[in-house]
Write a structure and sequence with these properties.
Layout: H1 6-21, E1 39-44, E2 47-52, E3 58-64, E4 67-72, H2 76-100, H3 139-168
Antiparallel strand pairs: 1-2, 2-3, 3-4
Length: 171
């Protein structure tokens, strides 16, 4: 008897999985000579890892209450190839837009204005007449601010006293 090779072992695993999926009603058949079996099965702790030798798709097959179910493993290479293709197409499109669009040179034909046209002109006043007026708060405004600061200070002191009493246990 010859020793079992990896293809023989994987074929037996595939046949066992097929029998388990079909409930054992299908007898094991040998794979056609031209195909060497479409699926290659490898046991894993969760079930069986199935490789489709025609397409290269990898699936995990697990047994649950309803029976066996196979789910395709996400193929990162396919997603990466798709993204690379999309980016290459976008680069080509942008290159086409650049080539077809107007060229921009570093020099402008018109001279730039010497001053800002949106800036308001300052009134012309002689040096001695220049005055800067800053409106000062009224006495009523100062009283309101002082009242607010006093209340805030008293609340802060009261809060500190309460915390100190809580810490010392004299609630």
């Amino acid at each position: 008897m010859r020793p079992a090779t990896s293809s023989t072992t994987s074929w037996f695993a595939a046949a066992a999985a097929l029998m388990a999926v079909s409930g054992g009603s299908v007898a094991a058949q040998s794979a056609p000579d031209g195909e060497n079996g479409r699926y290659s099965m490898t046991p894993i702790p969760e079930g069986v890892l199935r490789l489709d030798t025609r397409t290269g798709t990898v699936s995990t097959c697990t047994k649950n209450d309803a029976g066996w179910a196979c789910y395709a493993v996400p193929d990162e290479r396919t997603a990466l190839d798709a993204e690379i293709g999309r980016l290459q197409a976008e680069v080509e499109r942008l290159k086409g837009q650049l080539a077809a669009g107007p060229t921009v040179s570093g020099k402008i034909d018109e001279a730039l204005p010497k001053s800002d046209p949106l800036k308001k002109a300052e009134p012309k006043v002689a040096e001695g007449e220049r005055k800067i007026e800053i409106p000062l708060p009224s006495d009523q405004d100062l009283d309101r601010v002082m009242s607010f600061l006093e209340k805030a200070w008293r609340r802060l002191i009261d809060m500190a006293n309460r915390v100190q009493k809580d810490v010392s246990g004299k609630i």
